[in-house]
């Protein structure tokens, strides 16, 4: 499953690699680049993506590889840059196996929901921005 052709995915697509026959019955999977703001206190280096399945309530039988491109305009990549995932778009947790690979982040998605590339703001970044949730 791939999303490309958006301003944020030029050159590197968002991909989710779900194995053939992963589900017992037909499932429709979509990837949408949302306009959701990143969670408060994070620097976002990608849009928030919604990776969804129909019928609603479909569960991934096993973690699947996901690639999310990131954009860094200051040419300094934070050591904390990771994928962050959420089932509700409010509470995000770090994808434990996420890592940087040539302009995108890779990791394993264990549940359908929202995902973005970013990192928690430092106290200095929060002070510089003057507002929580606004990228420096």
Description:
The structure is a single chain. This protein has 136 residues and is mostly beta strands. It has one domain: Chondroitinase Ac, Chain A, domain 3. The chain contains 1 helix and 11 strands. The protein has one helix at 123-129; strands spanning 2-3, 14-16, 28-33, 42-44, 49-54, 64-69, 82-86, 93-94, 99-101, 104-109, 113-120. The strands form 2 sheets. Strands 3, 4, 5, 7, 8 and 11 form a 6-stranded antiparallel beta sheet that branches. Strand 7 (82-86) and strand 8 form a beta hairpin. The longest helix is centred in the last third of the chain and has 7 residues, at 123-129. It is globular and about 50 Å long. The termini are far apart.
List the defining traits of the structure above.
136 residues; mainly beta; 6-stranded antiparallel sheet; 5-stranded antiparallel sheet; 37% strand
Q: Rough shape? A: globular
Average of pLDDT: 86
Would you state the CATH class?
A: Mainly Beta
Helix/strand-derived category reads mainly beta
Strand content: 35-45%
Largest sheet: 6 strands, antiparallel
- N-end to C-end Cα span: 32 Å
Q: What's the helical proportion of residues?
A: under 10%
Order of helices and strands: EEEEEEEEEEEH
Question: Which SSEs are present, and which pair or pack?
Answer:
Elements: E1 2-3, E2 14-16, E3 28-33, E4 42-44, E5 49-54, E6 64-69, E7 82-86, E8 93-94, E9 99-101, E10 104-109, E11 113-120, H1 123-129
Antiparallel strand pairs: 1-2, 2-6, 3-5, 4-11, 5-11, 6-10, 7-8, 7-11, 9-10
């Amino acid at each position: 499953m791939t999303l490309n052709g958006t301003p944020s995915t030029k050159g590197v697509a968002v991909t989710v690699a779900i194995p053939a026959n992963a589900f017992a019955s037909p499932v429709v999977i979509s990837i949408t680049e949302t306009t959701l703001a990143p969670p408060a206190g994070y620097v976002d280096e990608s849009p928030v993506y919604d990776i969804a399945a129909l019928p609603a309530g479909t569960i991934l039988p096993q973690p699947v590889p996901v690639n999310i491109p990131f954009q860094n305009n200051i040419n300094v990549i934070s050591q904390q840059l990771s994928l962050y995932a959420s089932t509700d778009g409010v509470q995000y947790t770090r994808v434990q196996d996420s890592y940087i690979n040539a302009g995108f982040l890779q990791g394993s998605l264990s549940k359908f929901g929202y995902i973005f590339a970013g990192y928690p703001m430092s106290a200095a970044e929060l002070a510089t921005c003057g507002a929580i949730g606004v990228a420096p």
